[in-house]
Structures are given as C-alpha cells and as structure tokens.
Protein 1
Amino acid sequence: MDELPPPQFLCVTLYSQDPEPLRAYYHDVLGLPIDYEVPGHIAAMGPICAHDSSEGPAGTVRMYFLVENVPRYAEAGKERGAEGVLRTDGNGQPAWESQDPFGNSVVLLTRPSQ
C-alpha cells in the first residue's frame, strides 16, 4: 500500500463471554478511564474496548483502523495476497475485514467526514 497513506489506528476490541474481568483489568488495574459503557455489553476505555460475544466470538481480538477509501485499501490488500471481505458497516459505509497472520481480525472503516 505504498501509494496509500497508512491507516489511522482507532481501537482494539476484546470479545469475551463476560467482559467484566477485561473491564476491571484495564480500568481498575491499569487506570484507563471509561469513555463509554453499557454494563454487561461493552466498556470503551480509550483505544481498548471490552465487549461481550454478541458481536464477535469470545476469545477473539478485532483491531479497527480508519482510512479515506476502504475499497482502494481492499483492492491493494488483495493485490498483495491478503484475503478479506468488503462489506458495509453499521453506518452504511464501506468496511473491509481481513485477518493478520495470527488470526486476529483487522477491520478498515471509512473515516467519518469532517
């Protein structure tokens, strides 16, 4: 993706049957402030999110990045041998999901308009 600017890291989401131990570790132990929380579902602490398994399998990690042109990054990834799925995100915008060599999910989201 030499001609494309690097994606901007957004966050990493850790999925668990019970997100409370993750919330406790990142908030109570490390001291990350909670930016957003729905008890039993999700706790967002800066770039770390603890989420229940309603949107991802327990024990998985999903990293999110922002880019200007998701389809172009999807095309470049394919050209470089990365498999992935171009889809629509929850806001109706293009998103591309792939896996890194360790099986972690990597999602490129469309950067919101300023």
Protein 2
Amino acid sequence: MAGNTQRFIVPAQLAEQIPHHDMSRASEELGPAYFYMSNSLVPEADIYASGRHVKQVPVDFKPHIEPHKHQVSKVYIILGDLTVELILDGEKHEFSGPAGIFIPAGMMHTIRPLRGSGYITTVMRSGKYE
C-alpha cells in the first residue's frame, strides 16, 4: 500500500560525477559508486549518503580524490578487509576497516584505498564543496 511516504524510498543511483573526484577512473579500477540518498533523489533530504564496494584495490592505485573541504561535517565508514590512506589537514593516516572517521566542517581531507577489499561509505549533511 503506497501512501505519501513512498517517495522517501528510492533505488540507489550510479554516482557518475562528484566534485574533486575522478569518478570514471575510480569506477573502472575499483568498481562503481552509488548515491543512496541526496536531495536529487528525495528533494526533502538534508543528508547525503554514498558508497562503493571495492572488490580489490589495484596495485599502486593512484589518488582519485583531490584534497577538499565541506561546509558541513562528514563521516566515512570503512568495512571489510580494506586498508585506506586518509589525509586530514595535512596529517597522513593509514588504517584498516572496520573503522569510522569523523571529519569536522571546514577540514581539508582526502582518502584513497591502498589494498584489500571492502566498502567505503560516506554520510554527511547536504552542503557545498570548496
């Protein structure tokens, strides 16, 4: 029985373009990324959620995300046997999942998978890139 709330349940949409990300190369080398929620999927949504299933990180995978910041805070969730490199305000960190990362609003950051397989999920309030 569909009612007024049916519009809040949406299928994932292939993420073909994200500012500061080389999506075509990352999709080719890592696998596709998807938007699970955004105001383009549900106009009332003030949350952005995306994710990628990384089947296997290629040897010497080059960064595909330029350092950038947001006007809102952000959370990365790393699941599986996936090791990533995270740079926060110029400090480099390497760690494996499962893990969560909180990035305060206005903090420069970038992330890249280094090895293994798993999932990278992003959740943040809707906002602008800088």
Protein 3
Amino acid sequence: MEFINLTPHTICYFENGNKVKEFPFSGLVARVEEETHDCGFSNSLKVVKKTYDSVVNLPESKENTIYIVSGMVKSAIKYRLDVIAPDTGDGAVRNEKGQIIGTTQFIV
C-alpha cells in the first residue's frame, strides 16, 4: 500500500510512545477552498460567514493508494475511503510545549 501525504508537513505515526513511521510531504497540498461572505455589522463589529466547498489538489482514486489529508479536507470528502486524516484529538502526540508532533491513529 502506498501512502501519499497531501498535507504541508511530515506526518509522524506513533505506537506505544515510539515513532514508527513518517509520511513526508509529497509536494502537493489538498485543501478546501474558502469563500467569505459579508454579513454586515453587529454592534459595530464586522461579521462574515465563511463557507468551505470545493476540495482542490486531491488526485483521483488509485489502486493500492491512500491519501493523507488534513481533518478539514477529510470532513469535506465523505465519499472516498482512500482518504484519511491524522487524528489530532484523542490520537494526538504532543511535545513538552503541547505542540502536536504526531498521531497514534488516523480518521477514515
């Protein structure tokens, strides 16, 4: 099975507290296009609505290939089983500063 990382950074996978695999940046970033809609002002604060619609830079499905994307992209892709995202919630591995440095599981 080939894994292609479509996030802008290396994804590290941990088991039992040890990093066992790295998925390097592939050079292509899948992302969700964002649109901003002006809603006017509320109590003198500018208010906008953001919508996230189209996913860009996600290749077509390919046999024996899994694409690793961000959680936001994964949430926009509900129909593809070849797209996974690192779990940055319960599965997150953090350093001493609290920064995410990897994951122990992926979301399908």
Protein 4
Amino acid sequence: MQDSRCRRLTGLMLGLAVLLGGCTSLTGGAATDDGINVRPVNYKAQILGAMHAYLNDPTGIRDAGIAEPALKPVGAGTRYVVCVRYNARKGRNQYVGVKEAAAVFVAGRFDRFVATAHGTSQDQCAGAVYAPFPELQKLTP
C-alpha cells in the first residue's frame, strides 16, 4: 500500500515537472509574458460584472473611482492591475467606508481581486490616480 502511494506521488511529481518544464524556453530562460500581459480593453465592464458578484449589496455605492490599467507586481509576476475605490453599503443606510480593490487581469480579462496592503511593497494601488466611476454607483441588484 505504501509502495503504491509512493509510485503515484512520484508519477504526479514527474508529470508536474514535465508541465513546468514547458514554462521555460529552449535557451533555459524564464517563460515570457507574451499573451498574458495584454492591456485590458473593456476593463470597466469586466469590473462592473465582478463587483456585482463580489459585493453583498451592489446598490447605493458612493465615492466610486477607477484608475487606468497599469503593470504592477502581483505574486511572483507582473500583471495589469486596475485599482477601484468605492464605499459600499453594509445595511439599509450604513456604509462601510471607502475601500480599495486591485483587479488583476490576465490575457486582457479580469482574473481576480487581490488585497492591497497599504504601506507595503504589496500595495498595488499606492499612488493610483482615480477618475470618477459613476457606472459603479449605478449598479442594480
């Protein structure tokens, strides 16, 4: 029983090594980001869809702002990030306060939101210049 587990684990690790080996070029360099770091074109619409699903109550948002897409470090790589600022409701007439979200894009499409760590090197929205984002303030349930 132990031997079969070991063989399965070895096979899994070998398969993973083969897959990861495809991420390097023939010259031994790291994989390029060609195709991954495509500047998102319709990022506002994609963020609106994501925020609609992300927020418990997407109605009545205040103080919405959005920054232009910019290449920023995300994890071990670089991706296009769009910073969004908003004040969402948590109750009927209560607001949680202004929050920031860093929307990460892969191959020109929304991938996920990452937490911004204010005052650290992981703050993708540090220095972001926000423009009004009235479309976010008009979301419906």
